Amino acid sequence: MISLNSKYWIWIALALGYNTPKVKKLATLYSDISEFYSKGEKEWRYSGILTENDIKKLAKHSLDEAETILDKCRNLNYSVVSVDDISYPLCLFNIDTPPAVIYVSGKLPDIDNRLTIGIVGTRSATNYGLKNSYKIAYALSKYGVAVISGGALGVDCASHRGVLAADGVTVCVRGCGINYNYLRENAQMRESITKRGAVISEYPPDEAPRNYYFPARNRIISALSDGVLIIEAGARSGSLITANLALEQGKEVFALLGNNNPQNEGSNNRIKEGSAVPITDFMDILNAFDNIYATDGEVDFDNISLSDIEAIPVKGMKGVKMKKSRISVDLNKSENKIENIVDKDGGEIIHKKNLNLDNNAQRIYDYITCEPVHIDKISSDLNIPVFRVLSALTELEMKNLVTALHGRRYILK
Known about the structure:
The chain has helices at 6-16, 22-29, 33-38, 40-46, 52-60, 63-75, 90-93, 127-142, 155-165, 187-196, 213-223, 239-248, 265-273, 282-286, 359-367, 375-382, 386-398; strands at 79-82, 101-106, 116-121, 146-149, 170-173, 198-201, 227-231, 252-256, 277-279, 373-374, 402-405, 409-412. By secondary structure, it is of the alpha/beta class. The strands form two sheets. A nine-stranded mixed sheet has the order 1-2-6-5-4-3-7-8-9, sandwiched between helices. The chain starts with 5 loop residues before the first helix and ends with a strand.
C-alpha cells in the first residue's frame, strides 16, 4: 500500500530533512498537500511556515526524485505511509516532529489500539541483559503486547528474537533505509520480523546509516510505545535518549534492576531519581497498565527456553553463549557473609563492605521473611507510603538482599 500523497511528502522530506516540526505544521494546515505543491513558491511563502532557505530547497528538488524512490518501493513490495494517511499511527503524529512518510516492510500493526512496549538498551549486553531482554519480550508477546525496538546488536536483537520465538508481533525501527544491509548478522531476523510485524524507517530504502539518524530514530520508538523499558544502559547510553523522549511524550518508563556495574549506571540512576519504575520481570510492566489479560495462558517466566540466545550478536562479539555459572559458597569464609554479597549472574562478585541501609530499607528488610509478601501489605503494616517502599525495595534488591516475585511480591533472599 502506497499512500496517495506519498510522492509530495517524500519531496518535502528530501528538501527539508527528516526530523522537522514543519512536516506537522504543513499536514495540519493543508488537507491535501498536493495543492501546496501545485501552487508553487507564492503559496509556500504564504503558508508562513517556511524560510526563504526552505523555499530554495523545495524548488531545487523535483517530484522525479520521489517517484524514483516509490518505484523502488513498488519493486521491493514495500508500503509507504504518509503523514496525512488514515493508517498513519496517531501516536506518531502526536509528537512534535512526525516523519513525513514511513517506509514499511511487512505489515505495521494497529499501534494505536493495542499495548506496545519499547525495549532499548546497550549493544554490548551481558548475559543478564540478553536473557532478560529475550524473556521479557517473549512473555509480553504472550499477553498480546507488541514490542518495539531498534534492531541493533545486543538488547534490541534479543528483544526481537524473544518476540519471534513466542510468535508475537514486533516492530523494528531502523536508523537507515529498510533495504540497506546494515548489521548483516541481523538480516535473517529482520526478514522474520516482516512476517510477524514490520521493519520500518523514515529514510528512503537505500539510505545509508548516519550517526545522527539513530538519536532521531529513537523518537519514533518512544512515540510508538505506550511504555519504554531500559535494559543495561550506561551513564551516557543512547537508550537514555529514548527514555527522555518517552517521558516528554507522557509515556511510562521502566528500567530493569541491575548490579553496580557501569553497564547499569544510567538505568539504575533513573530508578534512584524516580524517573523510571524498577522491574524484575514482565508482570511489573503489565501491572502498570489497565485491562491487560493473558491471551495464551499463564507464562512460566522462569522456564522460558533460552536455546535461541546463543546466536544473538553483541557488539564486539560474533555471538554470546549463555554460561550457567555455578559459584560454590563456603559459609565459614568471611567473604561469603551477608556483608559481601555475591552476584551469581555471569559469575561476577560484587563486594559490599556493609549494608548502609537507610531507615525505611532497614525496617523493610527486618520485616520481610521467606514467605512472599505483597508490596501493599508492607506499606500497610509498616505505615510507609508505597512509593517509599518501592524505593527501599529497589535498594534491597540492588544489594541482593531480597527477591522480587510475580505480582509485586517479595521474599528474603
